[in-house]
Structure formats: C-alpha cells, structure tokens
Amino acid sequence: MLKNDLFLKALKGEKVSRPPVWMMRQAGRYLPEYQVIRKKYDFFTRCQTPELAAEITVQPIRRFGMDAAILFSDILVIPQAMNIEVQMQPGFGPYLPNPIRTPKDLETVNIPDVEEELDYVMQAIKVTKEKLAQEVPLIGFAGSPWTVFCYVIQGQGSKTFNLAKKCCFSQPQLAHQLLQKITDTTIAYLKAKIKAGVDAVQIFDSWGGMLSPTDYQEFSWSYIQQIIDALKDLAPVIVFAKGGWYALEKMTNSGALALGVDWMISPQKARQLTQNKITLQGNFDPTRLYSSPKKIKSMVKKMIDEFGKDQYIVNLGHGILPDIPLENVTAFIEAVQQYKSE
Ligand code: CP3
Predict the structure, then answer these.
(1) Rounded distance between C-alpha atoms, residue 189 and residue 183, angstroms
(2) Which regions of the chain are under pLDDT 50?
C-alpha cells in the first residue's frame, strides 16, 4: 500500500486535504545531484542503466518531497527502439541523422518487441519501485505519436516543425502510416510499463499546439484516443497537450482521468471548458519560478484557490527550466504542502 496516495486520489476525483504536487521534468538538469551523474555518463547511458535511471528519478523526491515521481527516461527511446537513430547532443538537444521523409525511409521503421528492445525501461521501473519503498506513486510516460513524429520527420527540435507539417499536408498517407506505427509501439510500450509497475501514465503532446484544431484532431488526437482506449482500464491516463486548450472540451469525455494545461488558459476557463468533470493538472508558467520565493508562494496559493483543491494536481504548465534556483522550487512545493483553504 502506498504511504502517500494524494496523487492517485486526485486522479480519481476523490476529496483530498490538499492537492498533490509534482513538476514536469522534475528529474533533471536544475538539480546539482543530477549534474554529478551527468558529468560521468552520457544521456542514453543514463536512460539505459536501471540503477542510474532509478537514482535520478528519486533525487527530486528526496530533496523536495513531491507527491509523485516520474521515471527518468525520454520520449525519444521509442523511435530508437523502432530502428531510427537518435543522438542527444549536449547544448543542442535531440539529433536524428536519418529522418524519415519518403515511403522508402518508412520501410526501415520497425514495430519492435518492446519487452525486449526497451527491457531496460522495465528494469528501471522495478529498481525505482524498490527505491521508492511505497512512499509515492511512480508515473510512466510517452510522447504523443504526433510529438514523436515531429522529431522523427524534422530530425531535430524546431520552433515550427515545418517539415513535419509539410509531410502531413503533402504526403498524408505516409504521415498516417508512420503515426500508426508509432501509436502501435507506444501502446505496447505503455502496457509493458504498467505491467512493470508504474501507477499512472502521462502522454506528453508537447507540440500539439502547432496544429489547427481541425488538423489536431486528424494528426494528433485520433492517435492519442487510440492509446487512451487501450490503456484506460489498466491505469490512470493523463494527457498533457501543450497549446491544446482548444481541445479540452473533447478531451474531457475521452477516458483520460486527468488533463494537463499550460499557462495560456486561466484556471476558471479550463474548468469551464471541462465542465468541472475531470481532474486538471498545471499550469504555473515555468518562468514564474524566477520570481521571489515569497511571490511564488502567493501565486501558488492563488492558483489552487482558482482551480479548487479537489480534482486538481499542482504542476507547471511545461517542464522546469535548468537554471531555476533550488530555493524557488522549495517555495513552490512548500506552498502546496502548507495549503489551507479559507
Ligand atoms: O519529467 C522528468 O523529469 C522525467 C524525464 C523526462 C526527460 N524527458 C528527461 C530529459 C521527460 C518526461 C522527458 C520528456 C521529453 N523529452 C519531452 C516532452 C516533455 C516536454 O518537455 O515537452 C520532449 C519534447 C523530449 C525531447 C527532449 N529530450 C529534448 C527536446 C531534450 C533536450 C532539451 C531538454 O528539454 O532538456 C531532451 C533531453 C532530456 N530529456 C534531458 C532530460 C533530463 C536533458 C539532457 C541533459 O541532461 O543534458
């Protein structure tokens, strides 16, 4: 039995004394203890070595006491397992030297046996569960098919993902075939993660907001819906679509247990679009963690008052930035731990 089940309670919409809190990208670069490991091992070695991945996962929990851990890994382990080379270049980010652009390229893309190709992730989950010793639940994740597709076509990060969009609109058949392959792999992958012990899964649709509402339905949401349908009876599913506020209404009745929101929408508007029917997660502007600890505390209190303490998971509206001072993170987490509604 979990000692702290605030996060799972909030997901199910049960009443809580205060909302749970975690931070997207909490396992990573802003932590000095992560930097120590980062200096010794390259990125994918960190992902592929269960002991290292587990250690990085529990680092933020030890320091700040968040109410959930998220497994250290990356969304790009999926294309890697599908026979697409992915490099992580320090100071540059992901680089895929052989992006998929033609039907011939697509033929080289496999739907792998995930239990074999991504066995290291399942091992990392088992080691992490032991380290966490039932203190807090563990979140597993994957990128949305669209977000993974963006990197696979573009070959690197981008402000516009123009080549990914070009592929959708000039070669829609190719785009849909690749999206379906990524979806099938992601479903098998998340099922294996749940079997290995994660307590909930989050789908990161970081680049969903690049698409118009109509194109979002065709190229992103229809694939996310397949993932939810396949998983919803196995574990709680959270969907976070950055920039996807316009789809909140549709997402509400999708079978997902919670929806992530970014800071482009007010708590009131997000509640209105989702008709108070579903748990919401978010939506503190990550750059607002540059404010003073005092200001952060008052903003967090206000944010909880606005979302309401129930059916709510406190989080950022996107990942934490690498240069956020540790005392500001402490202020963010403490504000939630000390929350009392008047
Ligand atoms: O949330 C966590 O703490 C768990 C770990 C996690 C990482 N990546 C580790 C990581 C998670 C959930 C991700 C998801 C991820 N990866 C997303 C979706 C979430 C988002 O922020 O939008 C995306 C788009 C990626 C792809 C990716 N991986 C990029 C663009 C980069 C480079 C820039 C960056 O954001 O850090 C990575 C590398 C990466 N993944 C790092 C970490 C800790 C930094 C690598 C380093 O230490 O040098």
Answers:
(1) 10
(2) none
